[in-house]
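User: I'm putting together notes for a lab meeting next week and I want to include a structural view of one of the chains we've been expressing. I don't have a solved structure, so I'd like a prediction I can at least talk through. The sequence is below, exactly as it appears in our construct file.
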Amino acid sequence: MNVALPALIVFLLLLPGFIARSRFKRAERISLDYSPFGQIVTEAMLWNCVFHPLWLLASAWLFGRTLQPLLLLELLSSDSASQAKAIQGIAAQFSWICGYFLSLYAGSWIVPNGFRLMITRFRLDRANAGWFVPWLRFNQAPWYYLLTGADFDEDERPDLIAVSAIVNVAGQAVLFTGILDNFFVDANGSLDRLILEQVMRRPLSADKPDGATTAEELERFYVVEGDYFVLRYSEAITLNIEYIKFDKLAENMTSELALAADAMGYVDALD
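Assistant: Thanks for the context. Below is the predicted structure for the 271-residue chain, given as structure tokens.
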């Protein structure tokens, strides 16, 4: 018990930092965290340096309870007599100590989640947000930034994300294209599958002819019937991502129509 009790106390004291660290970061790898051990411990200790002082200040302000360093040192001591004395002191204020740790664990779960939602909501982690990006960016979630458009400013955020992939079907390269609805990663953090809507396909050999109109270009594709199309990343040879903004798309279409009208006018003039 002389060794087990101090180890248990240290575990209970450090646990909030590890909880907060796990809830704040956005990691696509869920099987194992391969971050360096020193980095994990340092981040957890930094969170502990935030939560414990805040909870101690709140406890002193709301309940008039303050930290008793001597009691904590006696608990961490290997002397049985000192531990027994400390346990008696804890028993006298057991309800407050339980409330402290339970609320601390709940706070270490809720507060980092709130910070993460705030970072995502106000896009504070985008690549061009400023000097503080390295501290706020979720570096273990590259697919999140690529497939959600999170790196764009709010006014430049894409309305739709189009995905095009080449898949080998019966020995023939087939191009599938559609609007991204959702994506999933596997336990190792690799992209597992993409959920697409409004999917069309065509053989890769049926490439776009020079000078083809929009209608002629669409004729090359066959509509894939169904509400959702599941594309497994392991079966894709290449993957192309296109960010679509409605207002820019409308501008491009207007420009194309104007060029077409000018061309028609030029042909009429020749006639």
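A couple of points you could mention at the meeting. The mean pLDDT is 82. DSSP finds nine helices and six strands in the chain.

User: Perfect, that's what I needed.
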